[in-house]
Design a protein that fits this description.
The chain is mainly alpha-helical. It is built from eight helices and two strands; from the N terminus they run ααααααααββ. It has a two-stranded antiparallel sheet with strand order 1-2. The relative contact order is 0.15.
Amino acid sequence: MLVIQYSPFLNASIDTKEKEEAWLNLVKFLDEVEGLEYPEEMKELYENLTNQDMEKMERYLAENIKKWIGITTEELLAEREKFFETMNKMNSDTAMQSSWQKTFRMDKNMKEQMKNVSFYDKFNENLKVLSSDYYEYTTTFNEFIKSLNLKINDKGGIEVAE
């Protein structure tokens, strides 16, 4: 799954000393990092994916990346509106809430493991140097999330912070 998520950004030319150093740091990190332990729910989901599902996921991720790189102000406003529409729908749909909370728990578990192995410091930061697309994608997306002014509790409940 991580391969699908990051492979679109690994096609950048290594045309500067800084990018070469970032590439070497990425390789070193991947060689030395301990494996991540996927939550059982995530393992089950992954084991049940077909090749068609994986291809669909790759297409979705590629489209999503493309969308967030060079997104316009009008498109950001539309994304914001879609997000809040989905959030409002979730507030009245218990099945949707349950699915979100399950996803939230898996995501929280993975993020904690990634933090513990310094993934964000060692992998993310070097990939931002190596790939200007990754830098733009993460910067734009993170700024968008921050602009939503959300507060997520320990159980995955979402509300707009005051």
